[in-house]
Amino acid sequence: MTRFLLCLLFASSLHAIAAEPVPEFKGSIERLDAGLDALIAPGTKIEVLASGFNWSEGPVWRDGGIVFSDVPENTVFGWKEGDAAAKVVLKPSGSLSDPKGQGSNGLAVDAKGNLVLCQHGERRVARLEKDGSFTPLADKYDGKRFNSPNDLVIAKSGTIYFTDPPYGLKGGQPELPFHGIYSVTPDGKVSLLVDDVRFPNGIALSPDEKTLYIAVSDPQNTRVMAYDLQADGSAKKGRVFFHAQPLKSKERKGGCDGMKVDTNGNIWTTGPGGVLVISKEGKHLGTILTGQATANCAFGGEDRGTLYITADMFLLRVKTLAKGL
Asked: How many separate domains does the chain show?
């Protein structure tokens, strides 16, 4: 079977997954500071859009809808307003030779509208082409294969920043002795930025693209790190921006995973309990409590004023006053 036939394109061969009863969902928005009212209006509710996924991840707004990964199912799903269920957009998404392998995780859209994927199974960052083929953008550093690229963000220059923890290896052997944070330029130059953080996960840029944020999912020390990006592309002055470990409890599952930044520089990172909303000064303003281990989030909608959340089996939505980058 050709790769073209394996890859289900956005414009054709879409089919809905079987509708399943929506499990009982109990979520709420916890307001810790009055500053949250300027970002999420009082009285705003969490909406359940779809459910029944194995582990939903990596949402991104594309072509008038939200697309997201189901990592264990090796599938990218899509949902648009009016859909009764999420639809298969791409399968396989991250493991091409083994349909049962690990799929894509983080997703992004480049300046030309192409979908860029962190492919766990292939251990690379790749671009989906119009004909359904994949173009590898980064698959090795220093001649060694990556662990399993997890999440990514694309700068205005076209440079891609991505994290490389081992989560997608699933028993496979690492070739690199660290969990790296990398960049890859449009001409294909791969650079190692940080090699001393265990379990780097979500990644985002500040509005001026001078600060690189990393969500660290270390179960013993989950936190958000910040780095100053230099003119030569390197990352310096690493520091803890927000320490989330004290928030963990039996009732508040998960660690810092996916993250996004709004136009005013506030950080929206998944963390214990759901999505933590943190000011650009590092103050915890509130939490979108999902009751689930929550993987990632992304702003979408025509005005970028809606936060879509992938929380375990659920795809959720929260209307925001904040606007995403």
From this structure: 1
Q: Which residue has the higher pLDDT, 272 or 17?
A: 272
Domain assignment of residue 22, yes or no: no
Q: Domain residues for 195?
A: 3-17+27-319
pTM, full prediction? 0.93
- Rounded to whole angstroms, the Cα distance separating 237 from 286 reads 27
Q: How confident is the model at residue 26 (pLDDT cuts 50, 70, 90)?
A: confident
**Shortest CA distance to 85 belongs to which of 48, 136, 130?**
48
Residue linked to tokens 């009082």: 42
| SS3 of residue 35 by DSSP | helix
The domain that contains 73 carries what CATH number?
2.120.10.30
The phi and psi torsions of 57 (rounded to 5 degrees) equal -155, 170
Pairing assessment for the beta strands 314-319 and 56-62 based on DSSP bridges:
unpaired
C-alpha distances out from residue 273 to 43, 69, 150, 256, 287, Å: 19, 21, 21, 10, 8
What does the buried/exposed string (b/e) look like for 255-265 if buried means 16 or more CB atoms within 10 Å of the residue's CB? Answer: bbbbbbbbeee
